[in-house]
Amino acid sequence: MDTNTDDIEGCYYNRTVDFFYEKSGKNISDHWRSHDYVIVSLGMTVCFIVIFSNLLVMGAIFKNRRFHYPIYYLLGNLALADLFAGVSYLHLMFHTGPWTIKLSQHQWFVRQGLIDTSLIASVLNLMAVAVERHQTIFNIQLHSKMSTRCVFIIIMCIWLVAIVMGLVPTMGWHCLCDLENCSTMAPLFSRSYLVFWGVLNLLTFFIMVAVYTRIFVYVRHTSKQMSQHTTQMRHKETVFNLMKTVSMILGCFVLCWTPGLVILLLDGLGCEVCEVLRFEKYFLVLAESNSFFNPIIYSFRDTDMRRTFKEILCGKVPTS
What pLDDT, on a 0 to 100 scale, did the predictor assign at position 257? Predict the structure, then answer.
């Protein structure tokens, strides 16, 4: 409940979420409107599809021995991050609109922390995939010789860092003691935190794009030098197809998340003419849709993955 006194002078730890929304100019309706029902219904439908499709990807990688390699373990972890994103957005659907007014500060930070953690996990996982592909391609290998233990240590580190980053605002980088520095889009977050968040992720995107560009140039160059021997041609085709798949996943991720990160950055910089609230919901839906696109990419790009999907859905045991 709101109180008229502060825990510490200049701080507002006892205030409700509605207090910060009013101060930032992001007003919340106290009743459900028709478009609120549409947004929540649509969002929940997408969330359930995301959860189901990424469970399918994880099941395929677990069951089919053809996918028991580091690159597929990392792609499986990406599916886990997408699954977590689906759960996070489902949680958001139950804590948005007029429901936002009823949230405590702790509940609001949990809501945002879940989404932030899923994004960081996806970004770090894509970076790990980029490093793995760079290592294997430049060593003229199809799959990394990295041990399973090493891969799982990397995966654990990815989630540890993602969870810590998701908790950063809760641990102190907020605006509860600095109302003038509160974000408009995320009224309990500090603008400086949004700048840090946006710059860090956009920089990571550019690095990954640069790595994949270098890999593609190298693959195209070496493929021209290969002989027409059947084994070499099949190896070249397999490597190139796998590279196309992971590059499409990266490209989709960048396209879906960049607009949202850009407006977060603009909000953090205090851009008053950018009308960030006007685009916020659209870019949030675009970011959410990324977790839905990845399983589609797997289905269209990987024949073995598509076949395993069918076997799982039909109740058959995937072939090894």
Answer: 85
